Amino acid sequence: FRAAAIDALEDSEGRTHFWRTQLKADYSTPLPGQAKLKLGYELNADDNDYNLVFATGLASGPVAIDPTRSNLFRFDQQVHAVFATYERPIGKLTVLAGLRAEATLIDLDQVTQARKDSNDDISLYPSLHLGYPLDEHRQLSASYSHRIQRPDPRYYNAFRIYNDPQNQFQGNPRLKLQQTDSFELGYQYRKSGTILLATAYFRDTRDTTSSVFVNV
C-alpha cells in the first residue's frame, strides 16, 4: 500500500481579540409609604477584532495568504443603559415596577472589503412584578417583562467565509435585536421546610436570528 502524495496545502488560523469595559452606578432611597426607589446607570462596551488568515500553497513549497478567503472584521459596541425601579406595598399587594432605557451604538468595520456600517438602537424595556400573600404559607405572583437577546458579533460580518466548497457563511450587518415579551403567573407554598412552586408562562418572541441556507 502506498499513500498518495499531497500536492496542495490549505491552512487557516483565526485570531480573535476582545476588550470589554464595564461601568455601573446605583442609587437607592426609601420613600414614604414603605416605598423604595432605585436608580442606576450601566455601560457595557465591547471592542472585538476577528482576523481570519487562510493560506494555500504547494506541499513542497512556501504557502501564501489567500486574500479571497482571509478577512479582518472589527466590531465596536457601546450599550448605555439607565434604569429605575419603584417598589411599594398597597395593602397586602406588593408592586415592583421597572423601566430600563438602552441606547445601543454598534460600529462595524469590514476592513478587508473597506466597508463600514452602523447598527444603532434606542429602546425602552418595562417590567412589572406583583406579589399577593393568601396567608402565611401561600402566595400568588404575577409578572411581565420585556427582554432582548443580542446576536453573536460575528453574525454581523458581511464577508463570505469559506469553510469548504459546499459550505460558506456570510453575516448581515442589519441584524435586529431579538425581542421577547414574557408573562408569568406563579403559586408558592412554604411550610416546615416544604416548598411547592407552580408557574404558568407565555412568551412572545420576534426578530429571532436564524440561518438561511441557499445554493451557490
Folded structure, characterized:
0% of the residues lie in helices and 70% in strands. The protein is mainly beta and 216 residues long. The strands form two sheets. Strands 1, 2, 3, 4, 5, 6, 7, 8, 11 and 12 form a ten-stranded antiparallel β-sheet that branches. Strands 9-10 form a two-stranded antiparallel ribbon.
Summarize the structure.
The protein is an all-beta fold. The chain contains no helices and twelve strands.
Which terms summarize this structure?
single chain; 216 residues; mainly beta; ten-stranded antiparallel β-sheet; two-stranded antiparallel sheet; 0% helix; 70% strand
* Proportion of residues in extended strands: over 45%
Large-scale geometry: elongated
Unreliable spans are: none
Number of strands: 12
Structural class determined from secondary elements:
mainly beta
Q: Helices, strands, pairings?
A:
Layout: E1 8-31, E2 35-58, E3 63-65, E4 71-90, E5 93-110, E6 115-118, E7 121-133, E8 138-149, E9 161-164, E10 167-169, E11 178-191, E12 194-206
Antiparallel strand pairs: 1-2, 2-3, 2-4, 4-5, 5-6, 5-7, 7-8, 8-11, 9-10, 11-12
